Structure formats: structure tokens, C-alpha cells
TrEMBL record:
Alphabetical list of Gene3D superfamilies matching this protein: 1.10.1740.10, Winged helix-like DNA-binding domain superfamily/Winged helix DNA-binding domain
InterPro entries hit by this protein: RNA_pol_sigma-70-like, RNA_pol_sigma-70_dom, RNA_pol_sigma70_r2, RNA_pol_sigma70_r4_t2, RNA_pol_sigma_r2, RNA_pol_sigma_r3/r4-like, WH-like_DNA-bd_sf
Coiled coil regions in record: none
Keyword Protease: no
Protein name stated in the entry: RNA polymerase sigma factor
Family annotation (SUPFAM superfamilies): Sigma2 domain of RNA polymerase sigma factors (SSF88946), Sigma3 and sigma4 domains of RNA polymerase sigma factors (SSF88659)
Family: Belongs to the sigma-70 factor family. ECF subfamily.
Domain of life: Bacteria
Keywords assigned: Sigma factor, Transcription, Transcription regulation
Domain named RNA polymerase sigma factor 70 region 4 type: residues: 112-162
Transcription regulation is among the record's keywords: yes
Amino acid sequence: MSLNQLIENCKINDTKAQSELYKLFSSKLFSVCLKYSRNYAEAEDNLQDAFLTIFKKIDQYKNKGSFEGWLKRVTINTVLQQYRNQKVFDIVNENNIEEVDIEAEEDALSIDYLLKIIQELPDRYRLVFNLYVLDGYSHKDIAEMLDINIGTSKSNLARARQILKQTIVQYQQNENLQSL
């Protein structure tokens, strides 16, 4: 069955087609959920919520642009929805934002470790960091998605980078001590 036929069948609530769509895209969308979630279990819950939303809104997909891109946007928005109503964002003065560069030795940090320390960031920092750094959204887009101002987005990104840099420096110092 072609992807277009699968989508059309999902639009008429064909459970077999929904199951097939889930099998096709769940692993890719799970990695998206994992980036935005605090842990593995929360990512699993978010994936289920995302697919419920996808199946509910699939008739809104008009075969324009990438279907996978549409799935990813729906998934990110579904995950972010749980944070929008929480007061996890601080209002900040845009003038006090300091850019932080993170320097890490090539190959010194595993992807699993990086994902772990990103997941450990406070919600407000993790969400902005992932949207900006990993998914390439602008601060304007992030502000709209999270219902915050642009200054808050910039500030939260700077703070996330600062925390990550401190964590990586500590990790590297510990590794250096252990290798002595």
C-alpha cells in the first residue's frame, strides 16, 4: 500500500492503516519525543499522545510538503502543549543575555550522554534549546510556539548552553582525573 493510500485510509479511521502508519513512523517520532521529554517513560507517553493527535488531525494534511515533516511538527506541538499551560518560563530583560559557546573535545562525549544531560535541563531551557539548536526554529517561532516573548527564548537558550557547558566541563575534568 502506498503512503498516500495509507494516509487516505487513516482519514477514514481504518485501524489497520493507523497501525501500519504507527509502525512506519513510531521510531522516528519517538526520537523527537525523547528530545523534548524529561525521560524515556515520558517520551513513550508523549509518543502515544502525538499519534492520537495525528490520527485526529490527519485530515488536515493536504499532501503539500513532506508528510514526515508534518508528523514531526504535530509531534513537537503535542509535546509542547503540556508545557504551554505550566508557568515554566521566566520573563527576562533581553539586554542581559550573554551568548555561551560550548567547546567539547571531538568524540569525547557520547550521543547518549549528550541526550541525557539535555534531558536533565529544566523544562524551559530544554524546550528552547531543542527547538533552536536541534530543530532549527527561530526565536520568533519558538516564542509563538511556547507563548513566551523573544527575549525569554534567547535568555533560556543562553542559560541552557551555560548549564550544558558547566556539566560538560565537570564531566571532562572527572574523566581527566580518572585517566591519571
